[in-house]
Specification:
It is built from ten helices and 19 strands. With 473 residues, it is α/β, with parallel strands linked by helices. A hairpin with a 7-residue loop joins strand 15 and strand 16.
Length: 473
């Protein structure tokens, strides 16, 4: 290597900022600052993907009035407690289940046969918060992909509700924010997307049994796993109905995304590898979260996605957890700050203050914006190539460069791959290198000093989530 000028860092040991090149290939960019969506000074993401005309049109069809009507209709069933009556046509979880299914079937009817809507039921034997054998039923609408239908993405909300006493199955439990808001989001996305042709399959599901212990989602996740379904991303939307906190402050343009680092399903061998390479912030779920920010945080959604590096809030848990238990990438959307007077509460007035999870405390324009975030993410995931498989860093020899390998994808519109990297102290990818349609690439940077990733690109320029490489050959 020619002698470098004094003060010029060598690529293999120290990284220059935007001036660095790798293997003679110019970098696409490095982190800077720009405004996006409604925020000033927001950090520009070099891996960001701007919404195209097709996506903007889809997001423009999301209707806050329809969302409001859905939330109010679900609240009008009185209670949707998992242990409530299932054969009353007007009240209880059975009535809500049948109404959701009927609506999903209406959406499926205009899909040209691409969407199906059905019930997914099982009998839960007595267990925690389930005193007697109880039928638990999820409502599932599946929009089959037209190119890679075996690749699946799931979006969920739970339609059961509760009051202060989690075992009270008879009192009014309107559950407007928790979680008619999430179910309304799922149903609105099903309605808007039913008329379209995603490349991969999208599953829209309203699950039951969440308040009693994540029963419906656990059944769904285990069914996917038992069938060998390739779920490459799952999102639950739970308590996304209001931008108002308990102190009255509002943050109407932010949604939280809870994402675990160390995988719930991690084996002892995987834990040893993670500790050796420092992958605590690079689980498949964290890569999914970065993708959400890449495509869902922009002017088309009007939202800021606040990624929270936790599996869930303190003392709480959501329907993404059973999917994490099965090894699927999964995350939870939740409003920016909760008002606990309007969730898990008996409907009452106390000292002049109204308690209870009533529709009057929901912000339906806010729910519509969160729906657009989910829509942007799901549609881009479904239209982009799948996440690269078997990504690895070759470690058979001690070298100061980095050889990366991965499996070549089978998508018919696959155009190539990009290698991304960042300093180990950075949380976001800061540099991107185009490497073409290949299954291997060597970068003239030391694997000991930075983190690498690989993502796929199709002919339309849509990019997959990043795959974090593990040591291998």
């Amino acid at each position: 290597m020619p002698e470098q000028p004094a003060g010029m860092p060598r690529r293999r040991t120290v990284l220059a900022s935007a001036a660095v090149t790798a293997a003679g290939v110019p970098l696409i960019g490095s982190a800077g600052h720009a405004s996006a969506a409604s925020g000033e000074g927001r950090r520009e993401r070099v891996t960001g993907q701007a919404p195209d005309r097709e996506l903007r049109k889809l997001l423009g069809e999301i209707d806050a009035d329809r969302i409001e009507a859905t939330v109010r209709r679900l609240a009008a069933f009185g209670t949707r407690h998992t242990l409530s009556v299932q054969d009353d046509p007007e009240r209880g979880i059975g009535a809500a289940r049948d109404w959701i299914l009927a609506e999903m079937k209406k959406y499926a009817a205009v899909s040209g046969g691409r969407m199906t809507a059905e019930l997914q039921s099982y009998i839960q034997e007595p267990a925690s918060r389930i005193p007697v054998a109880t039928k638990i039923t999820n409502v599932v609408a599946t929009l089959r992909g037209s190119v890679t239908p075996d690749r699946v993405y799931v979006v969920a909300g739970h339609y059961d509700s509760r009051v202060t006493d989690v075992m009270d199955a008879t009192s009014d439990a309107p559950g407007a924010d928790d979680d008619a808001s999430g179910v309304a989001l799922v149903m609105e996305l099903a309605r808007v997307m039913a008329k379209r042709r995603p490349a991969a399959t999208i599953v829209f599901t309203a699950v039951a049994g969440e308040e009693q212990g994540l029963y419906g989602s656990r059944y769904a996740a285990t069914q996917f796993k038992a069938a060998g379904v390739d779920v490459q991303g799952m999102f639950t939307n739970d308590i996304i109905g209001s931008s108002r906190a308990d102190d009255g402050t509002r943050d109407p343009y932010t949604v939280r995304l809870f994402t675990e680092g160390v995988p719930t399903s991690e084996t002892p061998a995987q834990a040893n590898t993670r500790r050796s390479v420092g992958g605590e912030n690079d689980s498949s779920t964290r890569q999914l979260a970065r993708f959400v920010s890449d495509v869902g945080d922009n002017d088309a959604t009007g939202m800021n996605v606040r990624v929270v590096y936790r599996r869930d809030r303190y003392l709480r848990g959501g329907d993404h957890i059973p999917f994490l238990e099965q090894g699927y990438p999964a995350a939870r959307f939740t409003e920016p700050a909760e008002d606990f007077a309007h969730q898990h509460q008996d409907v009452r007035v106390e000292d002049g203050k109204q308690y209870g999870d009533l529709p009057e405390f929901c912000d339906f324009d806010y729910i519509a914006r969160v729906t657009r975030v989910n829509g942007a993410v799901l549609w881009t995931l479904a239209q982009a190539p799948g996440t690269p498989r078997e990504a690895r860093i070759v470690t058979s020899n001690l070298t100061n460069d980095t050889e990366l390998k991965w499996e070549l994808g089978t998508e018919p519109d696959l155009a190539g791959y990009e290698v991304v990297w960042r300093e180990t102290t950075e949380s976001e990818w800061t540099h991107v290198i185009k490497v073409g349609l290949t299954a291997t690439h060597t970068v003239d940077l030391s694997k000991d000093n930075v983190f690498f990733g690989v993502r796929a690109v199709n002919r339309d320029g849509k990019r997959s989530p990043v795959a974090f490489p593990m040591p291998g050959n």
